[in-house]
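Page header: ASSEMBLY MODEL / four components / 450 residues total.
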Amino acid sequence: MSIDQRMRADIAEAIFDQRLAPGTRLSEAGLGEIYGVSRTVVRKALFHLAADKLVDIRPNRGAIVWQPSPAEAHEVFTARRVLETSLLAESLPCMTPTDHAELDRILAADIAAHEAGDRQAMIRASGDFHRRLAAPANNSVLLAFLDELIGRSSLIVALYDTRDAAPCAHHDHAALLADIATGDVAPAQAALAAHLRDCQDRLVLDAPATETPALADLLRGPRRA
Amino acid sequence: MSIDQRMRADIAEAIFDQRLAPGTRLSEAGLGEIYGVSRTVVRKALFHLAADKLVDIRPNRGAIVWQPSPAEAHEVFTARRVLETSLLAESLPCMTPTDHAELDRILAADIAAHEAGDRQAMIRASGDFHRRLAAPANNSVLLAFLDELIGRSSLIVALYDTRDAAPCAHHDHAALLADIATGDVAPAQAALAAHLRDCQDRLVLDAPATETPALADLLRGPRRA
DNA sequence: GAAGGTCGTATTGTATCCAATCCGCCGGGC
DNA sequence: GCCCGGCGGATTGGATACAATACGACCTTC
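Prediction written out in full:
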C-alpha cells in the first residue's frame, strides 16, 4: 500500500475513532513530519480525504476535519434513507444464503463489540452491516455513494452522538434481518427506514460543543431586550 | 474563478462536447503549456476531474479521459434509475409553480437545441432537466450524487450513442412533465424509469470504436478452430 | 481601557528540480 | 523471421525552494 493511502486510512480511522475531533487542523508540514514525506504527498492524501468529504480544505487556510452543521448531518442521514431503501429493493431479491450468513456474522461482531464497549469496532461493524446489505444489488457506482455516506455518518455519529448508546443499535439490525429473511421488500424497507430515522433522531443536533456561539444573535440581543 | 477551476470546466465541457474522446491522453506538461501554469496546478485539476470520474489517472502512466466499459456504462444508468426515481418521490410533493415553470423553460430549450442540431446544448439541457427534477427534494448530498452521474452519463452518451437521436429524447421529457403535473408519484416514477431505460437501451454497447480488440480472444481463436 | 493599524511569523500555493518509471526502438540471438 | 533483452527519450512522482496569503501579537492612538 502506498504511503498516501496509508495516511488516508490512518486519518479516516482516527476520525471515526474520535481521536481526531471535527474542526481539528491538519497541517501539511505536521503530517509530513509524522510520515516522513514531503508536503506534496500530504496534499495528495488531504485532497483525497476532501473528495470523500471527511476533511474540509479551505483555500489558503488549511485543512480541517469536516465539521458538519446540524443541517448537513440531517441531509446525510436523509440521503442514506433514500439511497439505502431503494438499494434494498434491488439487493434483497438477489440475496443468496451466503449473503444472509455474512449478515449474521457481521451482526454477531456488532454485538460482541457492543458488549466489549469497543466503540470503534461498533462503528466499523455497523458500517459493514449496511454495506453488506446493499452489496447484492451489485452496482459499484451506488455502492461507492453508500460508502461515502457511511464514512460521513461515522464522523457525524462521532460528533453528535455523545450518549453511551450504540451508534447503530444492533437490536435494529437484528430485527431488520428478520424482515429480510422473509424476502418481502416493503417491510424490510420500512424497518430500514425506521432504523435510519432512529439514528438520525438520536443525534444531539443542538449545541455541538465545537460550534462557535452565534455572534450575530449575541449582538442583536441587547436591541431586542 | 481560479485557473484550475477554469481548466476543469474547460476539460469537462470538451468531453461532453466530444472534442475530447474517451481514452485521449491528458499530459500534464501539455496542459500546463496551454494554460501557462506549472504541472502542479495541472495535477490538481486532473485529480479533481478524476474525483468526478471524468478522467482516469493510471499510476505512472498519465491521465486519460474516462473510457467506460459497457458494463460501467450500464451501471451508471442503472444507478441513475434507482437514484432518480426515489429522488422524484421526495421532490414531486415539494414542487412549486416556479419549479414547474422552470421545467417547462428547460424543456423548451431542449427542443430548441434539438431543432438547431446543437448537440452540446442538447446534452446540457437534458442534464439541467434531470437536475431540476430532483432539486425540490432539497438535499444537496443526493443532488451532488446526481450531478456526478449526469456528468458521467454525458460522457457515456458521447461515447456510445452515435446515432442522430437526441441523447435524451425531449419527447420523453414532455410526457414526463404531463405525469408530474398530475402530482401522482407512481406514474411519474414509472415514466422516469422508462425514459432512463430507453436512454440505456439506445446505447450501442457492443464494439465501441475506441476499444482495443480483445487480444486474448484473438490468440485463443486458432486453437478453437 | 478599547479599537484600529502594522509588522512578524507561520502556513499554504506555486514553480522548478531531480529521481523513478514506462514505452518504443533497436540489436542480438535462437 | 520471430522473440527477448537492453538502451534512450519522454512522462510522471516526489522533494525542495520561493512567493503569497492569513493569523496573531504588539504598538499606537483616541
